[in-house]
Amino acid sequence: MTTDEVIESLNTYLNSFEYGILIDDTIYPDLDTAPWEQYRTLTASQMDKYHVGICWDFVNYQHLVLKVKHIPHKNYIFIKQLSEDPNDIVTHTFTIVDNHGDKVWIESSWLPYQGIHNVTGYQDVIDILNQEYGPDIDEYEVHEYDADNLTGLTNKEFFEEVTK
Q: Which pLDDT band holds residue 160 (cuts at 50, 70, 90)?
């Protein structure tokens, strides 16, 4: 398979998944009512079985496939505080693939942007995230991270790993 075919196949497959968290074989599509204290990042086999995940899980899955196929890519987490309350944050993880010198953003979890997008780099995605999550707040963080071994983690453990 060519890089384009792998990216297209991966994105099409993951776009069929539901957005939500999985806890004890129960899918919680409403993240506001989900028992987050019980959440753990999913393995690829859990995602394959239940067809569910959040952006953290989707990026972990993308990383696994792209790594096995030897396709260069980078994973990022965007963190933005929405108010003076330190717990009022939004996050999004995403993958940028180097497709023979062209950069593409693979998005499967964020419904309005699902698909494969040509970008010049991660800043193009950050600009969209900033616009969507409140352009009036300028402060945000972006961390590039290695998605190896990031399954089975709590929220706190995941944040500690990806913001090192």
A: very high
